[in-house]
Amino acid sequence: MLSSPPESTSTSMVKPMITPLYLWAAIVAFWIPAVRQWSYDWSTNPQYFYGWAVPFLAAYLIYDRWPQRPVPGVAKATGFLMGCAILLALLQIPARWFGEANSDWWPVWWLYAGIVTGCSFILIYLGGGMTWARYFAFPILFVLTAVPWPTYFEIRFVQRLMGVDAEISATIASLMGIPAMAVGNLIQTPTGVLGVNEACSGIRSLQSSLMAAFFLTGLYRLKLGGGLLLVALGAAIAFVCNVVRTTFLTYQGAMNGIEAVGQWHDTAGFVILGVVLFSLFLISRFLEKSEMKSGKLSRGTVTHDFKQ
pTM of the entire structure? Predict the structure, then answer.
């Protein structure tokens, strides 16, 4: 009597090379030195205070996706990839040496970003194949929103943004009957000169709004078009709101003296930040519902909830 041939092992029965517990524990261990390096700038630069929240938000995105994770795929070239992961891990040693001597040097920040991102993708691939690497790519890449921008680019961008903000705000104030003239990032009023710094120019709310837009894109699983639209609208809303803020402070300075600007500066900033974040939340929910109606949103459609 002929025996039937053994059934081929399905993808769902493939035992992952790395179990989930060890997988995420290793990824966290890789990210700790990078977060430690970036935290120097998060603590000293007000533009990046939001960075402290990013690792926790990324962890929540992973937690939110975990119940609907796909069946793990088969990892190939595992020996080669393990060697690459070990090599990247060893690169953290010279990166730390450079970081200790140059804690505010942006190439060190992005060197760490490249190392830990590469290690994370390798480990996720070894744990669940390409299906997991694609599925968990967004939460891993989301952490990069907390990495400080290259200094040269940031300075040029901030200076340009401050000048544009001052010019538009002075023009609006003039249309309101308030004599105001922009000179670089300064606004001259009858009662004194108002300086448009990084906070007033919107760079702080712009960076935090970009982070929030990316987070909401990942949380509601928006498609590429919806995500890019949300990010673009977030940047636009942040800039418009900060023009309103600067115009309001110019009005206060012109009507009640420059001293009045200090009384309203922080309050206006918090109000603007709240408006931006709430607007992003409403827009993201609208985009989510639109994509669900059109059948483009894949959240919760085909899932494989399995236990390791």
Answer: 0.80
